[in-house]
Amino acid sequence: MIIVMKPGASKKNLKEVIDRIEELGYTPHIIHGETRNVIGAIGDERGKARLQYLEALVGVERVFPILRPYKLASIEVKDQKIGERSTFKVAEGVSIGGPKIAVMAGPCSVESRESLISIAREVKEMGASFLRGGAFKPRTSPYAFQGLEEEGLKILAEAREATGLPVVTEVVNPDDVDLVAGYVDMLQVGARNVQNFALLKRLGDVDKPILLKRGMMTTIEEFLMSAEYILASGNERVILCERGIRTFETATRNTLDISAIPVLKERTHLPVIVDPSHAAGHWQYVHSLSLAAIAAGADGLLIEVHSEPEIAICDGPQSLKPKKFKNLMEALKKVAEAVGREI
Length: 343
Ligand code: PEP
Ligand code: MN
Hints:
Elements: E1 2-5, H1 11-23, E2 27-31, E3 38-42, E4 60-64, E5 88-91, E6 94-96, E7 102-106, H2 113-125, E8 130-132, H3 150-163, E9 167-170, H4 177-181, E10 186-189, H5 197-202, E11 210-213, H6 220-232, E12 238-242, H7 260-267, E13 272-274, H8 276-280, H9 286-295, E14 300-304, H10 322-338
Parallel strand pairs: 7-8, 7-14, 8-9, 9-10, 10-11, 11-12, 12-13, 13-14
Antiparallel strand pairs: 1-3, 1-4, 2-3, 5-6
The structure holds phosphoenolpyruvate (PEP) and manganese (II) ion.
Manganese (II) ion (MN) binds at residues 108, 278, 304, 314-315.
């Protein structure tokens, strides 16, 4: 059930409602809003007192059920009359979901200190708002490079110091969550782990935003249910990332599902970004797909950039060289402006 507080409700009113929800055996989740707070009361109503009567408490505007299987991720928890959506602050001056498009750029994996710091400086200069780079790599082959692990995290933290760019990196193993969260600004769940429920639940207690990638064979509803796992485990800051799905087409590595952007925007208040690099698998298509994603309403992009893709340890063929990334940033400005956003 969703309990919508009145715009002027006090902290005391909010606490009374939360205490009541707990007494009745449900778990409350506060969703902070622009004009009013909303509480999701999660739990099976069978055999328990019904929540509808909370409408009688001071400060409560409305109590209603959400019929979709995902609740806290649903657009219905926000004030749809004013087009309210979630915007998450990730670092000082850097948010995702607001008018500014977030561009996350960097190599597939952290390869060395020198190469990462040099690419971080270049992408920052060209207008990227985040540095990306993998330290723990979920590779299809057990014989492929698995990442520099903690050494890679240290290099990412150094690159943040050197450039001021917040850093996003993937966490693969639930046991490494605290380690990774200690070094970076945002934790990524990769496509292959989108339904690793133990990992998703573990990320619920992290005080860092989570970038959740859609699996290559995950429906939009399943994707939102995965986001719901993180939200229901206590972490409000989830950013969704469409990164291509598996289809019969072989010309690209995956097929970028552009439709997912408006569909997700219709169903969830969470920010939606797009990774055209892993979708395309070839750098030649990354430019057009990025423009299409922003035109379709995405809140950001995740783009692989490498100074020497020919010798990249991982995903060289889909990585843009810095000069191509610069051209892309120029082109994106125009598209962003056309759809009322900035970059
Ligand atoms: C990545 O971002 O480096 C990555 C491995 O992507 P995905 O999980 O989408 O394949
Ligand atoms: Mn990659």
